[in-house]
Amino acid sequence: MPRMPGGPRFWWILLALLAVNWFVVSLIPDREERLAVPYTVFREQVIAGNVAEVTSKGDTIQGEFRKAVTYPSGSDSSDTTFGTERPAFGDDELLPLMIEKGVEVNATPVDEGRSLLTTLLFSFGPVILLVLLFVFLMRRAAGGAGGALTGLGKSKAKRYDASAQRVTFADVAGIDEAEEELVEIVDFLKNPDRYRRLGGQIPRGVLLSGPPGTGKTLLARAVAGEADVPFFSLSASEFVEMIVGVGASRVRDLFAQAKATAPAIIFIDELDAIGRARGGSASLGGNDEREQTLNQILTEMDGFSGGEGVIVLAATNRPEILDAALLRPGRFDRRVAVNPPDRDGRAAILEVHLRGVPVADDVSVEGLAQATPGMVGADLRNLINEAALMAARRNHERVEPADFTDALEKIVLGAERRIMLSPAERERTAYHESGHALLGMLQPGADPVRKISIVPRGRALGVTFQAPDADRYGYGVSYLRGRIIGALGGRAAEEVVYGDITTGAESDLEQVTAIARRMVGRWGMSEAIGPVSVLAGPADEPLLFPGQGGAPSPRTQELLDTEVRRIIEECYVEAVRVLQANREKLTALATALLDRETLDEADAYRVAGVTRERASV
Ligand code: ADP
Ligand code: ZN
User: Fold this and answer.
1) Could you read off the pLDDT of 586-607 as tens digits, one per residue?
2) What's the whole-number average pLDDT of the chain?
3) Which of 156, 455, 468, 607 could potentially form a cystine with 592 if both were Cys, beta carbons 3.0 to 4.6 Å apart?
4) Cis preceding-peptide flag for 423 (omega within 30 of 0)
5) Does residue 381's CB lie within 6 angstroms of at least one atom of ligand 1?
6) For residue 507, which ligand has an atom nearest its CA?
7) What confidence tens digit (pLDDT) does each residue in 19-58 have?
8) 270-316 per-position pLDDT tens digit
9) Residue-level pLDDT at 389
């Protein structure tokens, strides 16, 4: 399929502009509404002396009555302005009659339909629209931001001056290994001559890979800041929908700019957006723009003689799908993994972001770090920000521990919602959450239950929050099955207590399916499929990329579905069995929840009569 300029968006914009045009035209008043009266009525009014003025052109007569006239009589259409048609067979006494009655003749010109402005809009509107659209497309291609027509293909990379808003390694915490690997780059940028003299192989490209929010961009900027060199940044995803050829010329321009100010750093964010492996069904319709942009980047990097002093840093959260060509020597041959921080790392990141924040003495950074497993730098910054807002709203002088716990709860569980549940719904929700919680308490090795609540939050009517005592890095089969059983606990409880189920378990089922699919398709935990990788990527798509095993066979995919189903069904049977065997604990929890709405960790275990098993850390 040939690529239309701008793709479907083009047509949407055209449509929107037409709508705007139509709207503007409709705002301009049409000819005034005049009361249409028969000639005879008009004549009567002249005789009655009720006509103030008239205008005529041809046989059309328009004018104004002194007093409003209602026509047809008895209706509610009444007006002081009127229009009528003079019959062709004449009435030559009209003019003298009007003069006699003191009617002002030809006071204003007859209004003929639309005004001049409207006419102009109608005749030139479409042309103007097309011109606007064209200009818009050109500017978009040129990268918007002030890009006039001449800017087509000019790089939009933002140039940060090293002196302004300088970021240094002191602003980066908790990802020490990645940081250490970049120290050398900083040194090279600072003393390029020393390296050149010794003929050392200077790195050209460094690929930072890691989940979103772990600080890849921050790290790249810190390298520039430490070395005191300009930083050019560019997001690769912007190239994907551009007009063919623009991306490549922008890349050329970006590299030229960077070389002119060398030593410098070029940062390409979301490299995977253009750097996906070529071929295969992943590139539907063959995205030429993507390929051309990618090729241009490769060409530029190959063109480095080594003396330019330009280093390209790129970030991706999906290194596994990158085209092998990008990773060849002389290109992004250095790879630095930026991992989510561990507990100490989180504490260090919290310290960095707490710098300017007044905090009460009893806030424990260690405690916060412990309570935030799985959170990355961006999440932690967000947490501190939420807590500060919470404190401000409560008129606290400093941010207090309660502000932090409430902010954390809001982030992890969603904000509370004020909706009224009927008593029946509340009771069902209480049993549903108790089912999750009880299974979480009874499954050996499951993450301890921290909180149960039937206060509606976000999309959920209630929540059960579980978190491990320490960070977890690997998961065993029995732990994962326990997770599935716990997640099915809400639905199972509804079935045990009410004998039927509701829609409330939707997100539980999504979660369960995701875990089971990964167990089978990624982690080789099903005997039927064996230790074979079937799924990949953050969305668990079937593997499709050449060089990585090709697409799984239809039989394997079918087997995957069967195995996923088997695991979930087995877990569900187990969930129902455990809840039936612990019916009185379930009722005790649900009753306490109905009474108190929220139970914390200690209360929940006490009410259920379960002893909390301390994980061996
Ligand atoms: P990424 O590029 O990996 O998606 P960013 O660098 O854009 O992540 O992180 C977003 C923000 O989160 C940063 O500007 C910084 O404020 C904070 N942040 C992330 N990681 C860290 C870290 N390791 N140390 C300190 N702050 C961090
Ligand atoms: Zn649920």
Assistant:
1) 999 999 999 998 898 889 999 9
2) 82
3) 607
4) no
5) yes
6) 2
7) 877 777 676 655 567 888 888 888 888 888 888 888 877 7
8) 888 887 776 544 444 456 777 888 888 888 888 877 677 889 999 99
9) 93
- The DSSP 8-state label assigned to residue 320 in this structure reads G
**Ligand 1 within 6 A of CB of 221:** no
Helix (H, G, I), strand (E, B) or coil at 547: coil
HSE-CB for 155 with a 13 A CA cutoff = 20
Residue 229 CB contacts under 8 Å (≥ 6 apart), including other chains: 162, 189, 263, 264, 265
Question: CA angle at residue 406 from 614 to 599, to 5 degrees?
Answer: 50
- Specify the residue for token string 């002389």: 330
**Could you tell me if the CB of 218 is within 6 A of ligand 1?**
yes
Taking the centre of ligand 2 as the mean of its atom positions, its distance from the CA of residue 606, in whole angstroms, is: 22
Query: What tokens appear for 424 in the block?
Result: 């029946």
User: Would you state the pLDDT for residue 4?
Assistant: 43
Contact, 155 vs 250, CB < 8 A? yes
5 C-alpha vs ligand 1 centroid, how far in Å?
36
Per-residue pLDDT at 438 exceeds 50:
yes
Question: 568 is written with which tokens?
Answer: 């979930």
**Cβ-based neighbours of 447, under 8 Å, separated by 6 or more:** 440, 466, 467, 468
User: In this structure, which residue's CA is closest to atom 6 in ligand 1?
Assistant: 215
Neighbours of 605 (CB within 10 A): 18
CA 11 to chain centre: 23
Burial class from Cβ neighbours inside 10 Å (0-12, 13-18, 19+) for residue 311 reads buried
Q: How far is CA 277 from CA 171, 243, 550, in A?
A: 34, 21, 12
* b/e sequence 532-547, b meaning 16+ C-beta within 10 Å: bebbbbeeeeebbbee
* Backbone dihedral region for residue 535 (phi beyond 0: left; psi -120 to 50: alpha; all else: beta): beta
CA 430 to ligand 2 center in whole angstroms: 10
The answer to whether the CB of 174 is under 6 A from ligand 1 is: yes
Tokens of 54: 């008239």
CA of 172 to the centre of ligand 1 (A): 8
Closest to 598 (Cα-Cα) out of 467, 457, 490, 459: 457
Q: Are 316 and 272 in contact (CB under 8 A)?
A: yes
pLDDT band, residue 214 (cuts 50/70/90):
very high
Structure tokens at 440: 């979480």
Whether the per-residue pLDDT at 225 is higher than 80: the answer is yes
| Residue matched to tokens 């723009």 | 289
Res 217 pLDDT > 80: yes
Instruction: Quickly tell me which residue has 């996923």 as its tokens.
Output: 564
CA dist 27 and 503 (Å) reads 47
Which alpha helices (DSSP H) does 89-172 contain, by range?
94-100, 116-141
Closest CA to 90 of 48, 42, 39: 39
The verdict on the CB of residue 170 being under 6 Å from ligand 1 is: no
Is the peptide bond between 263 and the residue preceding it cis, with omega within 30 degrees of 0?
yes
What tokens appear for 126 in the block?
């479409």
Q: What pLDDT sits at residue 146?
A: 37
In this prediction, residue 98 has a pLDDT band, given cuts at 50, 70 and 90, of confident
Asked whether 207 and 335 are in contact (CB, 8 A), the reply is yes
